[in-house]
Each structure stands twice: as structure tokens, then as C-alpha cells.
Amino acid sequence: MNSLVSASTNAARPLRELLREHRRNADLTLEGLAERSGVSDRTISDIERGISLGPQRRTMLALADALALEGSERDDFLASARSGRKNAVPAARAVDIEPHRLTDFTGRESEILGVVAHLAPSGGDDEPAAPVVLCGAPGVGKTSIAIEALHRCSAGHPTRLFVDLGGLDPVPLTPLQVLHSLLRQLGSEPDAAKSLGEATAAWRAAVAATPVAVLLDDAANEAQIRPVLTSDGRSAVVITSRRTLAGLEGARRLTVGPLPRGESVEFLRRIILPAQAENGDLDELAGFCDDLPLALRIAGNRLASQPTWTVEDFVRRLRSEERRLSALVAGDLGLASTFTLSYDHLAEPSRRLFRRLSLLDGGSFDPRLASAVDDLDADGAQDLLDGLAELGLVEAMRGDRYRLHDLLRLYAASRLREEEAAEMISAQRRRVRDWLLATTIAAGARFEPRPPHAAPADGILTFPSNEEARGWLMTEAEHWFSAYQAAAARGDHATVLLVADSLHWFSDLWLGWGRWHELFTTSAASARALDDPSQQARHLGYLAWAQLAEKFDPAAARATADAALDAARRADDGVESGWANFYLAWSLLHLGDAAAAQTYADASVADFARAGDAQGELQARSIRAGIRSRSDPEASIGEHRDLVAFLARAGDDLPHNIRGVTETNAHTVIASALLALRRFEDAVAAASDALQVGAPGEFPSGQAAAHRHRGMAELALGRADAARSDLTAALRLGAGARADDWLDEVRAALHSIPE
């Protein structure tokens, strides 16, 4: 027997479909119908999911009255419950059309080879085949992979059997029914095996002599599978399921995901007409299909059925998110209906969380963020997310991250609009965004020189350490930045400024993000909208920093800093005037005008001194010292000694970390200049001063440089042992601080020291 045989049902329209249709026609949510009828929302949910097949008559009458059903609609509705009570156990399934091997099957070579390797192990005839579970989201092509793999194993297993286990049916096949179907396909009469034990014995006897290949499609649970597995492992068994079937012993699992983009494009080329691809981007089309094989199949079939369409014609329809799911329908193939099979199996709390996940703008999320969309605690959200992942509606990623793919996000959004009131959706979206921005402010505050001690609002995440705050800001940037942009779009300028202010210290620690210029452009626009010149000056200063440090555009930074200085003068704000002059000095230094840079640096120092802002004055003195260091080592030494004296005078007006880093680097610059002037004993003393600031390794880049300068000076003075010790420490600290510009020089110097 070389064909695949299928078992399926031909049932009348069930009660669950009628109830759902009438409820939606009445524009009622589950909760709304529960309130109107007096029937609990859990009972209604159980009926709609097919768990309750024959509710009591008083329940049905209450629902019929609440739905205002009359005439034949009411009679059919009540009769469906009576039918369910009579048929709580499904009848034996009839033989249906066998699934066919796709002639245009594309890609999936690694997955197929993985399945084949487990079905036909290469270790010898005595090595048993392991059952393979193919699990994954709806529409990823699990069954197609299984069929293709079984055909490649046909030499070892010429007899192939197939059973549709009805995993998403109201009542899936029982283990006994699964065995009866398999026995029937082998030509046996299964009715003689009345019990599961008898059927299992008959099955094992039937396949003992002639091993078979079995595809158990759409499994609901492990119990359906276990009786099929034989102890000798000679038969090949492949199971597909939207669930992972984690309790199945000895199985090999393969989670099937979307196709790689190249295979998606090739798949489309094999379906559509060549002329259709001449106008349009197949890569863009594959992207709108989320590289999901079912979506690609639907898109390709729709194009192939309309020869006058081009790829661009169809892509134009898909660019609208509101139309995308409705456009991805071809005949009886539809993405939404496929997703609905999984959605209908969820209890209402899981459905609600799934729907509301569409409120998130980012691609991936953790349980803490998921809890914010549905007013849950993180543990409760994680339990529900695991259930959604089990049915393939979200993807479980590494750690505690999850992802909602684009097409499923659109489906979740459509269910949200259908089942929840527009006012609630708007309010919940605002709550999620407010939560994100409040948490961003709390995380950013960790990096301020003197973090605030006030406890964050209830429900906002707390961060015990800077490292945890940094991790959250970097991981969730896609979410909080989208919330930030939404706040700007709705004119919530005060919140925009709060967020930008909270992040400006952190921004210097994450230059690799690459979007600080966007963030501070937005905050500067909000300050302008509020017509607050002091705020304008501050946020234009932030923008000038981003243009220098992130965009490397000193000309743009100079123009921005000029505007900041004008705003600061209008506000009569000495602190912001100091910062504007600071950014002008920095910009002009990069533009090669050291004299003008010096003038603005002097003005910046004076502004901060008059305003009594020690932190600002420290920055201004630092850049002024840096400007002088470029042309005159003696002047650099004097300027940096003045900087050290300023640090001593400022004392506790400066936070420990800022004071420590600046003092370390000032002594290091002095040591470097003295080394260049060949004043080796003075260089050793200056480097030693740098190393006395803070604990060893507390300021690694500055301390690494100090060890380097002192080691080089000691080497010049003929102190081999001391030089070796310092240069070795410089290598160790410098590697961690990425001091690549002088590491090779230090290695060469170490190599030159005689043993």
C-alpha cells in the first residue's frame, strides 16, 4: 500500500459556531453576553471552544433570549444543544482525500534531512527510528515537510499511513479511534478490538512483520500518539502539531519557523507567471507574507489566478495593514481562518492577552511588558504566554523573550477591534505607552550624577542596579521609543521633555543605538512648541551633542549650538548659555578652528562659574584643557593641573564617579605630556597620582593609560622590573578598555625588556 490515507469528519454545523455567529451579529463581547444573559463568561467561552457540547436547556434559553433569537434561528440554536448532548463522543471518521505531495515544494532541505535522519538512522539495522514531532505556528508548512520526508524514506517504509487527529476539532480523535483508523488502512477489521489494550496489541502485531511509515497530523495531545509507538522502533512515525507535545517520551522535536527570505522568493517564482514578476519586488511581497509558507502559497495562487496582475499590483494591496489579512485569501485558503482554529482553543484570559499584544509596537517582549498590556502580574503573563506559544500564536525566544510575528499581530489586532470597544482599546494603548515612558524615566534616572531617591509610581519597574536599567533600556528601545514618538504626535510635550531629560546622561553610554539625534530632534521640537526658551536651549544642546558624537557632523552641531545660545540668552539662563558655548567650542574644534574653539571654551567656563554649576564648569575646563593640549604640552600641563585644583575645590559638589574619572584622566594627560618632554621622573610621579585615584580597576581606561605612561618612563630610566610590572598591568586593563591604539606599542616595549 503506497498511498496516504486520511481520516476526517463530516459533521453538521456545531453549536460553537452558531453561538459565536449570533454573538458577533449582536455586536457583543463574551463579557457583554454574560452580563445580558446571566450566564457566566466561562460557560459561554466553553461552548464557543467546543468544550461544552450540550449545555443545559435553561442555559440555552437564557442565551437565546439575550441574543433576541426568534423563529427558525431560535429553533436551530436550541436544537444544536440537543444534538450535542446526544453526540458527546464523535463517531468513527470516514476516509477522506489523501494529502498530496506538492509538486512545487521549495526549500526546507535542512528540516527534511533532519526528519529523515531520525526516521532512517545510519547506525545500522539495529538502531531504532525515533518518532519526530514537527511543531510550530499555523501556516508554517509542517504537514508538507512531513509528507516530503516520508516520501524520501519510502525505500525503507513502502507502506505509509496517515491519520488526521483533529487536534483543533471540538472533540479530537481518541487513542482508540487513532488505532482503529490505522488498522483499517492496513486491511484489518478494527471492530474486534473493543478496548485500547486490545487495539494496541493488534496494531503492534500488524506492524511487527512489515514496518510502516505513519504521519499523525494535527495532534491534540500525547495520549493520541503513545499507543502508535512500538517498542522495536522499526516503524517511522512523524507527528505534526501546533503544540510541542512536551510530555511525549523519546521523541525528537523540530520547531518549524518561517522560510528564509531566499527560499520564500524562490517559492513565489515557482508559482507565479514569469511576466508577473517583471513589475514589482518579490522580496517585498515575501516580507508582507512574513515568509510564512501558507501566506506565500495564497499570494502566489492569487497572482497565478489573475494573469493580468503584476507583483506590484498585489503588493499595493498588501501595503495597507488593514487590508492585508483580507487580501491573503485564495479560494478556501485563508490565513485568518487558519489562525482562528488556534485562537478558538484559548480560554478568555489567553485570548484577551493575545488580542492586546497587538498594542505593542516592538517585535519582541518579555512577561513584564506583556503584563502591562493586560493588567497582569509578570508570572501570570508568563503562564499565559507559554500557553500561546504552545499553540504557535507567539514564538518563544531565548531567555524569557517572546515574539508576535507581523501577520499574527494583524490578526490579533483584528480580533481586538472585533471583540473590544474602541474606547477601551484607545485607553489601554495609552496606558501601555504611559507605562513604558514612566519606566524609561525610572531607568534613565539611574544614570544621573545624583539619582533621585523617590520611589517610582505603582506598577512601574524598579531597577536595583545600573546594569539592569541599562539592559532594559537597550532591550526595550523599540517599544519605549515608539511610545515616545506617540507622545510627541499627540502633543504631550511635557512628557517628551521629561523622557529626553532622563536619558541624556545614559545616551553617552549607548552611542551604538544610532537614534539619539532623532530623540533629541523631537524633544527640541517639543520645547519650541511650548515656547520655553530655557528648555529649547537645553534640548538643542542635547541635539548638538548627538550631531557631534553620533552623526559626526560638526557643521550641523555648530548651527544647532548657535540656536541654543540664542535661546539661552533670551531666557537669561547662565547654565544653558554655558552648555551652548561648550558645544560651540567642541564643534569648532572639530572644524579645525582652535582659536575660536578656545574663545567659546573660555566663555563656557565663565558662564558656569557665574551660575555656580560645578559639573558644567568641570566639562568646560576639560574641553579647554583638551584644546590647549593639542598645540602646547607645557600649556596642557598647566591647564590640567588647574583642572585638578578645581576638582579639589569643588569637593562634594561633584559626584564621586565624575570627579574620579576626570582626576584620573587629568593626571594621565599630565604624565603623557611629561613623557613627551622626556621628563621621566616627573612623568612617573604624575602617573602615580593617577593610580592613587579610586580603587584599582575602578576607572580602567585612565588607569590603563597611567600604567602605560609610568611603564614607559621607568623603561627609559632603566628600571626593568618596575617597567615590566606596569606595562603588564597596562595590557590587562587596556584590553578591557579597548585601548587598541597603543597596545601593540606596549607589547613591543615588554618584548624589549631583558629577562
From TrEMBL:
Origin superkingdom: Bacteria
PROSITE patterns the record matches: HTH_CROC1
One of the Pfam families matching this protein, by short name: HTH_31
Domain HTH cro/C1-type: 19-74
Protein name per Swiss-Prot or TrEMBL: Helix-turn-helix domain-containing protein
Organism: Microbacterium psychrotolerans
